[in-house]
Every structure is written in C-alpha cells, then in structure tokens.
Design a protein that fits this description.
The chain is mostly beta strands. The chain has helices spanning 7-22, 40-45; strands at residues 30-37, 49-50, 55-62, 65-73, 78-95, 107-126, 130-145, 150-167, 170-184, 187-193, 196-203. The radius of gyration is 22 Å and the shape is elongated.
C-alpha cells in the first residue's frame, strides 16, 4: 500500500508559492535596527516587599528591553530576520526583624534575561513615508543571575501593530505587542513584557 502524500503542507505551499514568486523584493532589502522596550511587566513582577522569613527586597532598578534586529525583506510583503533582546532587573535584599530593622548583611541581586529569536514580518501597508506591519518570532530565553544560576525557556515574540516611518535609508519604528517566555503556568519569566517599543532603523 502506498503512503498518502500529506495534503496540508502541499496546500500551504500552493498558497505561498505565488506570493513568493510574483512579489518583488525591496530596493533596500537589508535592515538593522536598535531599540528599547518598556518594562511594565517587570515592575509588576519585581517590586519592593518583605518575604515571610523577613527578607526585605528594596532599591529596585530596571533597564527595560534593549534589542537589536537584522531583517532581510524577501518580498514586499514578507521579511525574515533575527532578534537579540536583553534586559536586567536588579535590587537589594536585607534580612530584617518584624520592625524592619536590619539583622544581617545586604546582598545585591542581579537578574539578566537574554532572548534569541528568529522572526518573520508581514508588511500589509506601504507608502513612501510610512509602512504598517505585523511580526511573529519564536526562540529561546536564557535567564541568569549573579549567583551563577542559569535557566532556559521557550520565548514567543508578537508584534500586533508595527509602524515604520522614514525616508530612504533611515527611519524609526513604534511597535505594540508582547514578549512571552515560560515553561509552565508556575514558571513564568515574561508574560506580555515589552508591550511597547521604539527603535531606529537603517536600510540598504
């Protein structure tokens, strides 16, 4: 008995092939960008407080998401690339009694998150000065700290609305979306993080 040829991949190929073959690429297909995204999720997940055993967390700081991305515009609609996203969250921990009086040495804590994410972008509106797009990326998060603890988790990056504004080689973007990384409902590293971001772009 012959094996049946899977139909779904063939259907998808049939739908995408005309797009890939007939669409013309951009005159400036290469793009690099450097940007920053908000840390709203981090400020809600990491904030001053005291644990049941009297360990007080204080003096929090956040870098926000610092990211760099390269993209190749394969057609006028579809572009492929890769993104590196880095952030740091830092604070101090001091053991205290019930009256918040220090009972031991203050210890600095440094947490770092690095995401490496391949991306695909879909540009659905294009004019001389502005473009609108959506994007999705899936990769990995590596979390580490100054206690030499290292953990990894899958990461999903969604851009629901991206706006590029510029002329010729230089431009700027505003993106609305979210960066997510978790291994299970009880092990969440990011959930709706980097909801808004801005970047400077260069094309050639």
């Amino acid at each position: 008995m012959r094996h049946a040829v899977p139909r779904i991949p063939l259907i998808l190929l049939g739908l995408l092939l005309p797009l890939v073959v007939t669409a013309q690429g951009s005159d400036t297909p290469h793009q690099v960008r450097l940007g920053w995204g908000d840390m709203l999720f981090e400020t809600m997940a990491f904030h001053p407080g005291t644990s049941p055993d009297g360990l007080r967390s204080h003096d929090f700081g956040y870098t926000g998401h610092i990211f760099a991305e390269y993209r190749y515009q394969f057609t006028k609609v579809v572009g492929f690339g890769g993104k590196a996203d880095f952030e740091s969250i830092f604070w101090k921990e001091t053991p205290c009694d019930w009256h918040w009086n220090p009972t031991g040495e203050t210890v600095p804590v440094r947490n770092y998150n690095l995401c490496i994410i391949p991306t695909v972008q879909f540009t659905y509106f294009r004019k001389e000065w502005v473009e609108l797009y959506a994007a999705v990326g899936a990769g990995a998060l590596i979390a580490f700290d100054n206690a030499r603890k290292v953990e990894a988790a899958p990461a999903l990056d969604l851009t629901l609305l991206g706006i590029w504004m510029g002329k010729d080689h230089w431009g700027a973007t505003l993106e609305i979306g979210g960066l997510n990384a978790l291994t299970n409902p009880h092990r969440i590293y990011m959930l709706g993080s980097k909801m808004a971001s801005v970047s400077v772009t260069y094309r050639w």
